[in-house]
Amino acid sequence: MFRLSRMARRSAFVASTILALGMAATASHAADKVTLTFANWADAEGATRPGIQAVIAAFEKENPDIEIKSEAISFSEIARQLVLRVRSGNPPDVAEVSGNDTILLALTGKVEPIDNYLDAATRAEVKPSSLEGLSYKGKLVAFPWTQAPAGLWYDKAVMQKAGLDPENPPKTIDELMKDLAAVKKSQPDVIPLGLDTTNRAFSLISNWPWMKTFGADPFAENGATSDAMKKYLSWMRDLAKKGYIDPGRKIGEFRPLIAQDKVAFLWDQVLLQGVIQSTNKMTDADFYKHYGVATQPAGASGKPYSFEGGHQLVMFSDSKHQEAAWKFIKYLATSPYATENYTLSYEASLTPLEKAPTDALAKKLDTPVFNAFSRKIMPTVTAVPYGPRFAPGATAIMAGVQQAVTGDMPIDQIAASIQQNLGN
Amino acid sequence: MNGGKTSAPPQGVPAAGRGINAGRIVKYAAIALALFWSLAPVYWMLATSFKTELEATRIDPTLIPVDPTLANYIGLGGQSLPFFSFFFNSVVSCLATAVIAVVIATPAAYALSRARFRLRGPVGYSVLLFRMLPLVVMLAPLYLLLLNARLLDSLAGLVVGFTTFGLPFAVWMMKSFIDAVPIEIEEAARIDGYPRWQILLRVVTPLILPGLLTTGTFVFMEAWNNLIYPLTFMTTMDKQTLPAALVLTFTGQFKTDWGGMMAASTVTTLPLMIAFFAVQRSMVRGLTSGAVAGA
Amino acid sequence: MAATAAQRSTKAPARKNAERVPWIDWMVLPTVGVLAVVIGYPVIYTLVLSTTKYNMLDMVPPRYIGGGNYEHLLSDPIFWISLKNTAVYTFGSVIISSLLGLALALLTESLTGWRFRSVRALLLTPWAVPFVVVAFLFRYMYLQNGGVINAVLLDLGLIDKPVLWLNNSALALPAIMAANIWAMMPFFFLLLSAALAAIPNEVIESARIDKAGTWSMVFHIKLPFLKSALFISSLLMIISNFNDFAKIWAMTQGGPGYSTTTLVIYVYRLAFENFDFGYASAIGVVWLVLLLVFALVYLRALKVNP
């Protein structure tokens, strides 16, 4: 059922084209309006819903022949829904995806390669680096919509109270440990370092740069039992034992805390600024005086890293309106209106565009935070090894990290059990 | 557990008055403790729902809202997410499940209780065993089933899903209520030549009304609590049920908003609490008369 | 049981014309029909899938591998951990909450009138709180920094530093169980209160005339009457706890490590994060068999005819 031969597919295509032509001839006005289904979580969250709806309305106004039917599916459910729907031959036309889910969908072989539609002009508009990691079997399977790398945010007020130089965030893990100690000593009720150690795929993505800076790669052969991985796990345990981290909190639970000066350093994405300001109602100027963001402190490898946590757009091979779908994708990702009114404002993310399409936008992008992210942090982004092994691997690795952070099991034993569960 | 003097009758048993008092004090202390244990978390939910966002995330929590606000509740109504739809979806799907389950289950329960047929044992056992099936295991096949029936992402499909646990449960529970009705009551009607379905409808059903209500309430509550089916079967946010929407909305990508979450939780809990207290008396009556309670 | 009386009265004629007993009664047909579709089909499908290698991500149809998944299961440490956690979680919660519910039912028995009604209504409150809300609420209260439980315990001087309730592999499961017991105890309280009220007055009176002491009254007179209610309500709750997904998923997602991973969580992760439907189905089948064995033993022990 699911494995139509190429022949059959082609003849089905021919047949449906003939059918479509015939129908177009008899009822031409019916074909006037194309309806695209757009599966996304932007419409499922109160924070982004007004933004995405405005952008969709603007697109429909500009393209009266296309109607967008937005299907709001939550962030945590969308991958599952999309795989099941692709599997049952009922996919949407366009979908918002991110992280490993993008590659998971590509694995099904039902994602339409973007190369078939990507014109040279558009390709020149986006940063070449933004397309990296979005290929599967040599084909570009998704188009970058927003870019959201993570950096080390620091609360200058907390640093000052701890006797640290608020303009000089830690550059190495050793410096970081000293700073954390100073924070813990001066302000016992402040969480020195905010790291997401929940067990979900996002946590592994978020912690991947930290493993990387210790030189660890748990997915490599015997990677989980490597010395580098054990060093990383020991470091995590050290952080927990000294009370520098608050295990089990989701990243979203640290954000209101740093807004009240209760977290000193937070490993988080660009959007943190918006969340902080919505919580404590700070003005932009005050915000930049109070908070800053820097690259990750370098570990044993001597290099800082980051991950790209932005969102992508995919279209499906079963879609009957791929031209229109591409038009919509292009609009969301590259149009000045969507960039200004969605990507920068509601998502508070970077745009994949090489340079701002308008001067007004360029001015908007010229802030200390955006600059730090696009100039300093973006170049440290490292690819996360997405693929079929990633999701089950993430469960095994994060379970190990949790064991290191919350228990007393010897690190060697934890590493061995991660390795065993990865083998499964 | 020092409820020692629980049933010491007020009028008799020549026990020392002091002993009774000590027992009483222990008893009331135990009841007070139980009340505290039951209500403290509910209080915390309510208190948090009236706190500002900053207060709700304080590292040193305040026991009483310092600066009480209705913002979290207003936020629910004014939010771009349709909380009223979630509420409506939950009520409709759970109510429909309860009604359908009870209606289909009652004749089956009656037959299992009264009739003689060879497959009675197997049918009775399988109903009970079906009740035990791990829901998560049936998710994928049910998903495909609903997909083929074009019921995915519809309240009807959700009701079908809820029926998988609601129906066996209803059969099982209704049977225990019918078992408790003395068969002699039906004799007169049987002698008068009424068909069985009429006896069930006119003689037995009125007697087991509290049982029907109790069963319906249990099915309703279990459907209301179910998270895994709506999460899987409903693809459109606006068609989601309240508990699922709660999970989906407040664990979004941006931040965890405890105040808003507790306000939404309160709104999710209240209708159930009201409904529950409304039927409580008749439920107790149902349980008392049913074989669940009778030994 | 009242059921036995009903059966007895139908049994005698049954033997007389056994050959004319029909196979099936039309009144059960609607139920049987519905269950065959919504449960029978999924179960058979699961059985079939469990003998295949089938990952939804690969666009290849399920491939028959016989007992391969079952062999894998034997050597899968996470399966055994989940099985153990499921047993601890289910039986632990049910036993503790049934005992607490029983104690409360006995304690409040002598209260009468509005006092009883209001105490009962207040004690039942947690039962009206949906599972998802229970999970969120307790997760919030358990927070290491900023959780009210740690804050109060610190203030009272009972602990000197915050306890990691949900983030300690030894404490996480008991912590979730506490939330579960909180939510479930009212159910036992309600059922057992009802059963207590149903004890015929004459029984209590005659015991009283015999000058039975309080304890002997509880153990020799009341408990035997409550046995059936206790066992049946326990069975109901055991079943519902085997399936409990919401509380654990919303509180710890099975962590830290695998310390709160139950079978539901494990199967859910396998099926809907890894899309490994073949293996997930095999675990489902084993789980099913275990449940069936348990149910039969339990019913045998109870001597209840379903």
What is this structure's SSE topology?
The complex is a heterotrimer of chains A (424), B (295) and C (306).
Chain A lengths: L5 H21 L7 E7 L8 H14 L3 E7 L5 H10 L6 E5 L1 H8 L12 H6 L2 H4 L3 E2 L2 E2 L2 E2 L5 E6 H6 L11 H14 L4 E4 L6 H13 L13 H15 L9 H8 L4 E7 L2 H9 L3 H7 E4 L16 E5 L6 H13 L1 H8 L15 H7 L2 H10 L12 H17 L4 H13 L1
Parallel strand pairs in A: 1-2, 1-3, 8-9
Antiparallel strand pairs in A: 3-11, 4-5, 6-11, 7-9, 7-10
Helix pairs in contact in A: 2-15, 3-4, 9-18, 10-18, 14-15, 18-19
Chain B lengths: L16 H33 L3 H4 L14 H8 L4 H32 L5 H11 L4 H14 L6 H25 L4 H8 L4 H12 L1 H17 L2 H6 L8 H9 L7 H32 L6
Helix pairs in contact in B: 1-13, 3-13, 4-7, 4-10, 5-7, 7-10, 8-9, 10-13, 12-13
Chain C lengths: L1 H15 L12 H21 L2 E2 L9 E2 L3 H7 L2 H31 L5 H12 L6 H12 L5 H8 L16 H26 L3 H9 L4 H29 L3 H6 L11 H10 L4 H26 L4
Antiparallel strand pairs in C: 1-2
Short key terms for the protein model shown above:
heterotrimer, B: 295 residues, mainly alpha, MetI-like fold, 72% helix, disordered N terminus, disordered C terminus, C: 306 residues, two-stranded antiparallel sheet, 1% strand
What is the compact description of this entry?
Chain A is 48% helix and 12% strand.
Structure description:
The complex is a heterotrimer of chains A (about 425), B (about 300) and C (about 300). Chain A is α/β, with parallel strands linked by helices and about 425 residues long. Helix content of chain A is about 50%, strand content about 10%. Chain A is built from 19 helices and eleven strands. In chain A, the strands form three sheets. A five-stranded mixed β-sheet of chain A has the order 2-1-3-11-6, sandwiched between helices. In chain A, strands 8-9-7-10 form a four-stranded mixed β-sheet. A two-stranded antiparallel sheet of chain A has the order 4-5. In chain A, helix 3 runs parallel beside helix 4 and helix 10 packs across helix 18. With about 300 residues, chain B is mostly helical. Chain B has two domains: about 15-75; about 80-290, MetI-like fold (Orthogonal Bundle), CATH 1.10.3720.10. Chain B has 13 helices and no strands. In chain B, helix 4 (about 85-115) packs parallel to helix 7, helix 4 packs across helix 10 and helix 10 packs antiparallel against helix 13. Chain B is globular. The relative contact order of chain B is 0.12. Residues about 1-20 and about 290-295 of chain B have low confidence and may be disordered. Chain C is mainly alpha-helical and about 300 residues long. Chain C folds into two domains: about 40-75 and about 275-305, no CATH class; about 85-275, MetI-like fold, CATH 1.10.3720.10. Chain C is about 70% helix and about 0% strand. Chain C has helices at about 1-15, 30-50, 70-75, 75-105, 115-125, 130-140, 150-155, 170-195, 200-210, 215-240, 245-250, 265-270, 275-300; strands spanning about 50-55, 65. Chain C has a two-stranded antiparallel sheet with strand order 1-2. Chain C is flat and about 75 Å long. The model of chain C is unreliable at about 1-15 (pLDDT under 50). The chains are: A alpha/beta (about 425), B mainly alpha (about 300), C mainly alpha (about 300). At the B-C interface, helix 1, helix 4, helix 5, helix 6 and helix 7 of B face helix 1, helix 2, helix 4, helix 5 and helix 6 of C.
